[in-house]
TrEMBL record:
One of its GO terms (molecular function) is serine-type exopeptidase activity. Keywords: Glycoprotein, Hydrolase, Protease, Signal. InterPro entries: AB_hydrolase_fold (IPR029058), Peptidase_S28 (IPR008758). PANTHER family: PROTEASE S28 PRO-X CARBOXYPEPTIDASE-RELATED, SERINE PROTEASE 16. One of its GO terms (biological process) is proteolysis. This is Putative serine protease K12H4.7-like protein. Belongs to the peptidase S28 family.
Length: 76
């Protein structure tokens, strides 16, 4: 809590629209090699749950984006 001006690197920051904590999250963070991802219609940590046939398109897209970003960071 408190600091919105932090400088992160090689970090992905997922937030869900119905996550009660998203109001405290960095929703539009762009600094160096870090990325913020907003997932409409998801709750807290939904991107970490196992995949399901019921997953929304937004959640599937976010997981793919997170995975690609982690792959990019690991290749540095």
């Amino acid at each position: 809590y408190g600091e919105y001006g932090i400088q992160l690197s090689n970090t992905v920051l997922p937030n869900g629209s119905i996550d009660p904590w998203h109001a405290l999250g960095l929703l539009n963070y762009t600094y160096a090699n870090s990325k913020s991802i907003f997932i409409n219609g998801t709750a807290h940590c939904a991107d970490n749950y196992p995949s399901s046939q019921l997953d929304s398109k937004e959640l599937i897209q976010a997981r793919n984006e997170i995975s690609a970003y982690i792959g990019y960071v690991l290749s540095l």
